[in-house]
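Exercise: predict the fold of this chain.
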Amino acid sequence: MNDAKQVSIVPHILFGMFILELIFLMVKKVSLALYGPFDLFEKLFPIIAIGLLVAVIKPRLNYKWWAALMLYLGYLMYGIAISLANQKGIKIILVQLYHELKFFPMVMLFAVARCDEIWTKRTIKVIKPLILLCILLIFFQAGAPGAYDAIFSSGGHFEPGHLGGRLVPRFVGWFWHPGQSALFFTIAAVLISVEYHKGNLRFGNSLVFLCIVFVFCAIQRLELMLLFMALMALKVQRAFNIDYRFILAVIVFAFFTWLISYLSWDKDNVWYVLENFESPRVIFLVEAVFVLFESSFWGGGWGTIGSHAAADVANVYEYNAMKDLWWVKLGQYFYDTYWPHVIGETGVPGYFLLLLSMTFMVCALERPEASLLLFLLLLTSALSSNAQSLYHLTIFGWFITLFESDPYGWRHSKSQAANHY
């Protein structure tokens, strides 16, 4: 399909997915029962991504994208092979294969798609009223918490946050969960900052300040740290006009290599983590490392620990050592974890195939700002399931599309900012 048709069709589809995810949040916030059909529709997004990549978009991939693609396919093939070797059923393999096909096709779709500058302006027009709605909803929650909880009874924001040794309520505005709010306004701050310094946006500093306030209100310490890291990266880029994509890729590879090396080097390290960090996430991670040891570092196959297939098909938590955990009793088997299933189910080979694929992806993106967003997403996956969350993949992905479609490029942002002032 030619470029003209791609420009006319693909951005509409991707922007529609972006808008739908924001609408789904409010539906989920009002009623989980009402959200059910929307959740089923959202599951089509990876299929749409694969269809667009195969049938519509015909990009010329650089060698980094080819390397990332081959490594990811290697990860999938190894997952299938080690699952068959461990006598896993075909249903387990097919279910988990669907979930594994979320990350790469979604990110690749948004990375190689291109759109006109008008789509950035339209996105800003969505962000501005969203900021206003968040302000109104935060005041509503603070002033009438009882009425707020009655209207948004299924919101995922009821656990208070820890701030200065005190428990304080989390304010998420339009969003369903504090993490969703904090990460959305983190990447929104990046886009707003870039557009402001290009001279395309007024009151940019005020809007960035409001984004920072929303991250504070969500009481998400990791996201707050990532926000300031992102803003500092943009400042360094403007000051020295440097390309930091390779640096981000090295940090990703080094961090996750250190993680698995520390855990698999000595069982005493695993016990130390379990004893000093009390968290369901840590328990899943430790159990996954034990599976890693038991499989002689090859992995136990999909459907063993931490994956969707383990919970939905194999029902492993009904009889394993984790069945009495409150997290498991609530059915929240894997919603805050991503890497445990990679460690336990695909072992060291699968872990490094996936990690190397992600590392090449960070380098393969053409704009440092786009690499920065993927870098943030990958870092959050250390403590969450964001790398397989269709919400986060869509939101991060759409902003990556906007940056990758920048016709001027990052090398011109400094000169344009000088002209603006």
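Check your answer against the key: Residues 7 and 198 are 23 Å apart (CA to CA).
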